[in-house]
Amino acid sequence: MSNTELLGLERQERIAQILEQRGTLTVAEISESFDVSEATARRDLAALASRNLIRRVHGGAMRAHTVATSEAPILNRQEQNAEIKKRIGQTAARRIQNNETVLLMGGSTGLAVARELGEHTNLTIVTDSLFVANELMRQGNHKVIMLGGMIDPAEFAVRGTLLRLILSELQVDKVVLGTKAISAQRGLSAESAEEAEIARAFIHVGHHVIVVADSSKFQQTALVRVVPIESIDTLITDAGIPPSALESFRERGITVEIV
Asked: What's the rounded Cα separation, in Å, for the pair 9 and 161?
């Protein structure tokens, strides 16, 4: 990829972020703010719309979605269902074997998994989370690869185009990730198109996909579909999972572990 192409991707990422904050942007505003021609601004919007990150309107664009529900920042979520998350983390850790390569997505449950890897040896762990990386570095017995990109201050995690470009080049033994919402019918869901795209990129690089989610995730809804439920291999959750959901997951060939 040339420097010009990378600059274009960075500009598009910034446009998407501004739209998330403001709701709308015109072609003229983009042209003036980024010192590019209106033709270039239109091409940027077309590229973003093709990835479902924005919605084109006459003369400009608007954000692609309205968030149905919003999670608290990770600092506030760490203590929610802490004991359940600890048990989920312990069970997920048992699924990971020494010498494996693991892609561990951030979030409060992902951090709970990281905390249970202290007895493992010679893991190579790739993560988007500053908290997860810090915990693994504290343990001192793994190779830790921190993904690059723009840092989301609410999640202490990396986001953006550069992150997705790096992920597209990876392949790992196991992917471990959380989710905003999950159901057998709708699969995994996320709050925004960007979050969905990142989660999808994580899932596509793993030979075995493990979703870690406490049972509250079965009672939530989120706007953007990530993947159908058949895209995952193992679900680790707690005893609060509705019996009908448990049956539906197992009918679809998914291994469900209850902690």
From this structure: 7
Number of folded domains in the chain? 2
- As a whole number of Å, the CA-based R_g of the chain is 19
Q: What pLDDT does 236 receive? A: 98
**Residue 74 and residue 153: Cα distance in Å, rounded?**
10
One domain, residues 235 and 135 = yes
For the chain, helix (H) and strand (E) counts, in that order, are 10, 15
Question: Could you identify the residue written with the tokens 């069970």?
Answer: 91
Tokens of 122: 């010679």
Contacts of 148 (CB under 8 A, 6+ apart): 158, 162, 163, 166
CATH number, residue 86: 3.40.50.1360
Looking at residue 88, what is its pLDDT? 96
Distance between CA atoms of residues 113 and 102, nearest Å: 11
pLDDT score of 137: 94
Within-domain flag for 68 = no
249 and 134, same domain (yes or no): yes
Q: What is the mean pLDDT of each run of 10 residues along the chain (259 residues)?
A: 67 85 84 93 91 81 58 54 89 98 92 95 96 94 93 84 89 96 91 88 96 86 88 95 92 96
Would you say 170 and 103 are in contact if contact means Cβ atoms under 8 Å apart? yes
CA dihedral 187, 188, 192, 195 (to 10 degrees): -140
Domain that holds residue 196: 74-258
In a domain, 69, yes or no: no
- The pLDDT value recorded for residue 178 is 94
